[in-house]
Design a protein that fits this description.
The complex is a heterodimer. By secondary structure, chain A is α/β, with parallel strands linked by helices. Chain A has eleven helices and 13 strands. Chain A has two domains: 178 residues, 3-Layer(aba) Sandwich (Rossmann fold); 116 residues, 2-Layer Sandwich (Heat Shock Protein 90). Classes of the chains: A alpha/beta, B alpha/beta.
Chain lengths: 306, 258
Amino acid sequence: MAIGSLRDIGSREHVVQFYQDDADLADKVADYVRDAVRDGGVAIVIAAPHHRLAFRERLTGSGVDMAAASASGAYLEFDAEDTLRRFMAGDTPDPASFDTVVGRVIRAAAEGGRQVRAYGEMVALLWDAGLVTAAIELEAMWNDLGRAEAFSLFCGYPLDSVTDPAQSHALAEVCGQHASVLDSPSPVQARTFSASLDSVTDARHFVTRTLREWEVADPSADAALSVTEFAANAVLHGRSAFTVTLLTTEDTVRITVRDSAPFPPGTSSLPVRPLHGLGAVAAMARRWGVEPLGASGKLVWCELAR
Amino acid sequence: MDILPDGAIRAVRLDGHVCWLVSAPGMYAQAAPELLAEGQRLGQMCVVFAPGREPADVAGGRLDPAQVLRAVTDARNRASAEGFSGVRILADMDWLLPARPTTGDIVRLELMLDRLLTAEPDVTVVCAYRSSSFDTGQIAAALVAHPVVSGPVERPQFRFVAGTAEWLLSGEVDARVRDVFEDVIRAALAHGPQVIDVSELDFIDVSGVRAVVTGGRSDGGIVLKGVSPALRRLWEVSGFARSAPMVRLTDDRTLERS
C-alpha cells in the first residue's frame, strides 16, 4: 500500500517501517505522533531508552511542549524491554498478559474516541534475540487488539537486522502481519482480503499485478496458482479473512497467506493430496510450509524459484 | 465476448445467441415490441416464446431443452420455406424455465441452444432474463453460456460457449465460479463434444481441472486444445497426467485427427 508519509496512516492501520539509523527513525516517529499529541489524541511509545530520548528531542525541536504532553497523558512512554518482559512466558508472548499489560493502556487511551497512535519496537527486540516465531505471534496479538480498539500502530525494524537473505522467510511473515510495509530491504507487498469468494480472484490479481510491476515474469503462473489455492483454503475451509504477502529476493518469489482460522485441536498441518490445490503447490514450490500462530490463526507459505 | 450497454438491445443488430438482462421493471414490455419490429424490418420471421404468444410446440415452465431446440429448428424450416431472411426468437425466460431453476438447469438449456445456433447462422435467439426474477447466481450462469450479452453487467469471469466442433472456454476459473463451472462442464460434456478449446483460458485452478477430468462421459476421452504451458505444468505436477490418461492435451488449436 502506498503511503506518502507516516502522518497519513489511517486510524486503524498497522504499518511496519524499516529504518536506516536512529536519526532516520526519530524523524519518522516524530512525524507520526506529532499531530496526535497536539490535537487532543494520545501517543504511546514503547521503545528503547535512547530512542525515547531522541523522539523527545525531535518533538521538542518542532515546537511540542513535551512536559505538558506528558503531564496531560497525551504522550505516554514505556520501556520496550521492561514491557516485553511483563508479558513473555519463556520464549512465547502470553496473550492474556499482553492484554493486561498493553491492551489496558490502549483501551484507556482510546476511551472517548480519542485518536491513538502507538509506536513499538518490542517485536524487533524478539527478532534480534532470534525469537522470530515469537515476533510473529506478538504482531498477531497487536492485530487482534487492533480489531477490538481503534488505534494505529507503527512497528520499527532496523534495516540491518533483517537484510540477511536467510531471514527473508521470516521477513515476509512479519510483513504479512502489517497492512503496509515501508522501505523494506526486499520488494514486498502485503494486502488483506475479506472472507469472500471474490477475494480469491482479487488476491490472484493482486499477485499477478504486483509481479508485473516488479517485472518478475518467471514464476508468475506458479505464483497465480499458489495464491489462488491458499486463498481458497482460507475462505472455504477457514471461513476467514486473509492477508497475502508477496516478497521477492534475487532468486525466489515468496507468497505468504495468513488467515485467522487456527488449526482444529490435535492437527498441525493441512492435507496434501495429489489432484488437489496444496498438492500442486507443494510440487511446484522450492519450499513450502504451514505455521500455526496459536489462537491467532496460521500462515501458509511457499517459495517459488525465479 | 460482446457486452452491449443497457438499452442497446433495440438499437443493435442482433446476431446469434443473445442474453438480454432486463434490469428495470417495464423494460421488457417496452423494448420487446421494438426488438420484434426491427426483426420484421430485416425480413426475419419473428417468434416469441412468452405467455399468450407461445407457439403450439413450446410449453412454458417445463424443463425440456429438447422441445425448445425442436421449436427453434421448426421455426427456421418454416422461415426458409416461407422466404424469410432468417428467424428472430425472443424467449421470455421467466415463462420458459420452470419456477426456481437451478444454475444447472439454466446452463444445460443455454449450452444446448448455443450448440444448435452455431450451425444456424440465420437464427437469432434473445433470451430475456429479468433481474427481478432471477438471483445473481442464476444470472451469472446464464451469462456464461451466451456469446453476446446486453445489459448492465460486468464481464463474466469465465465464458463457455459452443465453437463449430468443440467448446470454447475462456477467462478465469477459480473457487469464485466453481459451482457454475461444474454445472457447465457436466452439461456440456454430457450433451456435446468432448473437446474443449482452452487457448483463451487465462487461468484455471486445480479444482477446475478436476471438474473437467471428472465431468466427461464414461464412453469417451476428453481433449483439451490450445493448452498453455502453465496449464500443462499444472497438469503434470498435480498428478493429472498420471491419473487421467483418458484426457488428451494438445498445444495446437487445430485438432489433429487420430
